[in-house]
């Protein structure tokens, strides 16, 4: 399977900032902590925000409905960001599984 690349615009720094409104979090059917992914994408560390304390979903749980992106008033490409971390999570999981299988 060829590796997918994300548009370079995703990595450009902008003047937009997450206002922590919680619209993406409330809309996400997979219960993913989207604001923390956005913070990590912008070079920060995942933090618990006022809307994410009960979020149990992982990026790999994303059903790619795109509702998070539609609800974001700042226009962040949230679906693409979630996909990026889902791919990363999946590849780490495959690597760990491979290591476990090769242990004697």
TrEMBL record:
InterPro entries to which the protein is assigned, alphabetical: 4Fe4S_Fe-S-bd (IPR017896), 4Fe4S_Fe_S_CS (IPR017900), Ion_transpt_RnfC/RsxC (IPR010208)
One GO term describing the cellular component: membrane
Keyword Electron transport (UniProt): no
Domain of life: Bacteria
Organism encoding this protein: Catenisphaera adipataccumulans
Name used for this protein in its record: Na+-translocating ferredoxin:NAD+ oxidoreductase RnfC subunit
Alphabetized UniProt keyword annotations: Iron, Iron-sulfur, Metal-binding
Pfam families, per the entry: Fer4_10 (PF13237)
GO molecular function: 4 iron, 4 sulfur cluster binding; electron transfer activity; metal ion binding
Domain named 4Fe-4S ferredoxin-type: residues: 7-32, 51-84
PANTHER family: ION-TRANSLOCATING OXIDOREDUCTASE COMPLEX SUBUNIT C
């Amino acid at each position: 399977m060829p590796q997918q690349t994300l548009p370079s615009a995703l990595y450009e720094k902008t003047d937009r900032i997450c206002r922590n409104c919680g619209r993406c979090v409330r809309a996400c059917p997979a219960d993913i902590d989207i604001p923390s992914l956005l913070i990590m994408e912008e070079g920060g560390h995942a933090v618990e925000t006022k809307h994410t304390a009960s979020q149990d979903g992982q990026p790999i749980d994303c059903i790619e409905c795109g509702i998070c992106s539609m609800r974001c008033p700042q226009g962040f490409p949230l679906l693409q960001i979630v996909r990026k971390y889902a791919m990363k999570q999946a590849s780490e999981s495959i690597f760990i599984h491979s290591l476990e299988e090769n242990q004697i």
